[in-house]
Automatic annotation (TrEMBL):
UniProt protein name: histidine kinase
GO terms of molecular function: phosphorelay sensor kinase activity
EC class of the enzyme, as a word: transferase
Residues of the Histidine kinase domain: 352-575
Catalysis: reaction(s): ATP + protein L-histidine = ADP + protein N-phospho-L-histidine
Species assigned in the record: Teichococcus deserti
Keywords: Membrane, Phosphoprotein, Transmembrane, Transmembrane helix
Transmembrane segments: 182-204
Sites bearing 4-aspartylphosphate, chain numbering: D645, D799
Domain Response regulatory: 595-711, 749-864
Keyword Disulfide bond: no
């Protein structure tokens, strides 16, 4: 086999060698020349800065001299300018000479001299201003300034001389480099000729390789185009002339451009012509979309039904890139977040208002009920009293609606069969809506159970039905449909607040007026209503919305003007068996004789509750906060039930109070009450399983039934228990067990002495209910004054602990004014622990605190029988 000639390879090697040598020499020479240029520039720069520094110091001295000699401020201009320039020039000189130790030392010496000179100039100016120009001129005439100036010039000259010598060396080096560069250039010419010959051969060979590279580039371009077509964002690139050089299909889909424009070379003006015809324009106003990467302005394209972010950014080689991102889901998520934050803010506000408002309503309600018991059934004021009680009920419903919308209401969810609940409500809805509204219920077979608060679901259905009735003023048809439903991933992708899964769908449809889009967008907002002023609170549908959301469900509204409205409630499916719902809280109002500890921080509300419980026959203890309640329990007194508010001040939480109370007293029952509960006994909008809650405001009947449900059936007790428990009587009706009421003389007066105004008020009310005419005093001195001016009362009821004179001393003095006066001593101490004077041995009764009306009536009856 014949071997090929090595000449082409040798030529290529020589060419490469020549090029490499030329590049090496050129690089070396270029580096040398660059170093020389930098050194020369550095020398000139040092000289310029040094001279400028000397000139600035001289200008400062000139300004100082002119000012002192002429005594005119206008001559200070050069001095003041030098003051600003000198520090900058000194800093520059220090930086320039920092790399050479000897030069740095000279620069530091020069800087020190300059600073001394500037100090000397400043001293002469200060002396001239403070002591006169003659003193300044005398200082100038000394040799100090001249010597400093001479030293500065010497230092400057030393630096300049050194820089001059360095400059000469650099020029010599530059000349040598120039000779070397000439020799290298000649060598390079020779070698380049050889390289050209070899390069020609290489070009011929590389032509084939270039074609192969073009084919590979085309393949990579196809891969790039496929990549662009598969990304979610729209991209289009235009060169400096405005011609399309790259794009993907998504760009035309998102921005709604014809795909016929997706040809390379299409001018940008073709896109603008289409873009200008729509509103809003995206590309016609580049200031709206121009900006660096990562910035831009969100643009909404109504015709495409999407929320888009469009960016226009410049490319490094000219031209620009327009990119488009579909942010529809993000915009929806942000809208949901804003709605959630608004709901949270309303919930916080509503919670605080509801707590205080319900407390006030409870005080009003309790006192109105007690007033109603005192007024007879034929009293003329009962009509006004009924109106007041109705107002309290409306206020309570309004607060409950606010809490429902804000998802703060305490739910008591049960597993129910929604079809059964709808069928049970159908007759009620027919009676409520009237004959002009046809009501039809459609319940699908095989219906799933759901876990919701049945009472709230009934309220939601009633609210929807009443809204449907108002939308059909001429009559129509209301259809309630219950069926199983599955919300899949596609539905959840459009409604981001929905979790995909199985639901029970409850739809309420009407054939009414329907709603325009503007009303539909606001229909679930609180206080929004299309009714006339005074004909609606705007809280009905918002209450439905809040209840469904709090229950983990979803609400969907469909409506068209003139075509009616359909509201669909999707409630999560429950796989548990249906709960058996009890008979509710109906039944007779029954009291009891157990001991109840009331914990309430609102003083008026606490006293109202205590009075209601005492009227029901219970023995009542009270505490204003958790710490006081634990103190009462630790005293050893037997308590059967803890009735406590949820929201109270103090470091001990209500749940902790209940837990510690039950540890101290096993078997203790706990009933909570609150106008608003946050997280103490409610989690995820639902009551804890072991919690009994009585929401404020409540009526006496609700309180009685709730307590008996917690305590169990009331144990029979002889005496007046039944009468007291039923709130009956002024002391004239016969009690159980054969006991008879006390026969007080006509107009008999009972003097009540108690320093606590609330206790005194309650005691006066009890005495009046028992048929006595009450007189009251807050201390012993007031009581004695009354006894001295009035006839003898039927009896004296006094607290043991009074300010000043105590109850026993008061009884002794009262017996002196009215011998034989019956005295009832109210005390929290044991009877045997008291020291009773002999003059009080007869006609004295004891009443242990705390006491209910039943205990008071028995004690008074025993005292009355003993003194007759």
């Amino acid at each position: 086999m014949r071997r090929g000639k090595p000449w082409p390879i040798l030529a290529v090697a020589l060419a490469l060698l020549a090029v490499s040598l030329g590049l090496l020499v050129a690089s070396h020479v270029s580096s040398q020349l660059q170093a020389n240029r930098q050194a020369v520039w550095h020398s000139f720069r040092v000289a310029d800065v040094t001279r400028a520094l000397l000139s600035a110091v001289q200008d400062a001295e000139t300004g100082q001299r002119g000012y002192i000699l002429t005594e005119r401020d206008s001559y200070l201009g050069p001095y003041e300018a030098a003051q600003r320039q000198v520090p900058l020039l000194q800093r520059q000189l220090g930086q320039l000479l920092a790399g050479n130790a000897a030069q740095r030392a000279r620069a530091e010496r020069l800087q020190g001299l300059v600073e001394d000179k500037m100090v000397e100039l400043a001293e002469s100016l200060t002396l001239s201003r403070n002591q006169g120009f003659a003193a300044g001129r005398a200082l100038v005439q000394t040799d100090r300034g001249r010597e400093l100036m001479l030293a500065i010039r010497g230092a400057v000259e030393a630096i300049l001389s050194e820089q001059q010598a360095a400059l000469g060396q650099q020029v010599e080096a530059a000349d040598r480099s120039q000779d070397a560069s000439l020799l290298a250039a000649l060598s390079g010419i020779v070698l380049s000729l050889a390289a050209i010959a070899a390069g020609t051969l290489l070009l011929l060979r590389n032509n084939t390789r270039l074609k192969r590279a073009e084919a590979a580039l085309a393949e990579k371009g196809a891969v790039l185009q496929a990549t662009l077509d598969h990304i979610q964002d729209g991209v289009a690139a235009f060169d400096a002339a405005g011609a399309l050089v790259a794009c993907n299909r998504q760009f035309f889909t998102l921005l709604d451009f014809p795909h016929a424009l997706a040809k390379l070379g299409t001018p940008f003006s073709a896109f603008l012509a289409i873009d200008r015809r729509r509103e809003p324009s995206v590309l016609a106003a580049p200031d709206r979309v121009r900006g660096p990467a990562g910035s831009g302005q969100q643009v909404s394209l109504s015709q495409a039904g999407r929320e888009l972010e469009v960016y226009r950014n410049a490319m490094p080689e000219g031209g620009f890139v327009v990119s488009c991102i579909d942010v529809t889901r993000r915009a929806q998520a942000e809208a949901i977040l804003r709605q959630t934050q608004k709901m949270e803010a309303i919930g916080q506000l509503t919670g605080g208002v509801a707590h205080d408002f319900n407390n006030m309503l409870q005080v009003v309600s309790a006192n109105l009920e007690m007033l109603g018991r005192e007024l007879g059934p034929e009293h003329g004021g009962r009509r006004h009293l009924g109106h007041a009680i109705s107002g309290v009920a409306r206020g309570a419903r309004l607060t409950a609606q606010l809490l429902a919308f804000a998802r703060r209401q305490p739910l008591d969810p049960r597993v129910i069969h929604p079809g059964r609940l709808v069928q049970e409500m159908t007759d009620l809805l027919r009676r409520t809506l009237g004959e002009r509204i046809a009501v039809e219920a459609v319940v699908a077979g095989g219906l799933w159970n759901t876990q919701v608060d049945p009472g709230q679901l009934e309220n939601a259905l009633l609210n929807l039905a009443l809204n449907a009735r108002d939308a059909m003023p001429e009559g129509g048809k209301l259809t309630i449909e219950v069926a199983n439903a599955a919300l899949d991933e596609d539905y959840a992708a459009v409604h981001l607040e929905v979790e995909p899964g199985q639901y029970v769908m409850l739809a309420v449809s009407d054939t009414g007026l329907g709603m325009p889009p503007g009303v539909m967008a606001r229909v679930f907002e609180p206080f929004f209503t299309t009714k006339e002023e005074g004909h609606g609170t705007g809280l009905g549908l918002s209450q439905v919305y809040g209840f469904v959301k709090q229950s983990g469900g979803h609400v969907k509204l469909y409506s068209e003007p003139g075509q009616g409205t359909a509201v669909k409630l999707y409630l999560p499916r429950s796989r548990r068996a249906e709960d058996l719902l009890g008979g509710g809280s109906l039944g007779p109002v029954v009291g009891g004789h157990e001991t109840i500890l009331v914990v309430e921080d609102d003083a008026e509300l606490r006293e109202a509750v205590v009075e209601m419980l005492q009227g029901l026959g219970y023995r009542v203890l009270r505490a204003e906060q958790a710490e006081a309640a634990l103190t009462v329990l630790s005293s050893g007194v037997q308590v059967d039930l803890l009735f406590t508010d949820v929201v109270m001040p103090g470091p001990i939480r209500t749940r902790d109070l209940a837990r510690r109370a039950q540890e101290m007293m096993p078997g203790l029952k706990v009933v909570y009450t609150s106008g608003y509960t946050a997280n103490a006994i409610i989690h995820d909008g639902r009551l804890d399983e072991d919690v009994q809650l009585l929401s404020k405001p409540y009526r006496r009947e609700d309180l009685a039934r709730h307590l008996r449900r917690a305590l169990g059936a009331a144990a029979p007790e002889p005496g007046l228990l039944a009468a007291a428990a039923l709130g009956g009587g002024s002391g004239e009706a016969a009690g159980e067990g054969g006991e008879t009421p006390i026969g007080w003389p006509e107009g008999a007066v009972a003097l009540v002495v108690e320093d606590d105004p609330l206790i005194r008020m309650n005691l006066v009310q009890m005495v009046e209910i028992m048929g006595l005419t009450p007189a009251e005093a807050g201390k012993a001195e007031t009581a004695l004054a009354w006894l001295g001016k009035n006839p003898r009362p039927a009896l004296l009821i006094t607290d043991l602990t009074l300010p000043g004179m105590d109850g026993i001393a008061l009884a002794v003095e009262a017996r002196k004014l009215h011998p034989g006066l019956p005295v009832m001593l109210a005390t929290g101490h044991a009877e045997g622990s008291l020291s009773i004077p002999p003059e009080l041995a007869d006609g004295l009764g004891f009443l242990g605190k705390p006491f209910a009306m039943l205990q008071l009536e028995r004690a008074l009856k025993a005292l009355w029988l003993k003194t007759r």
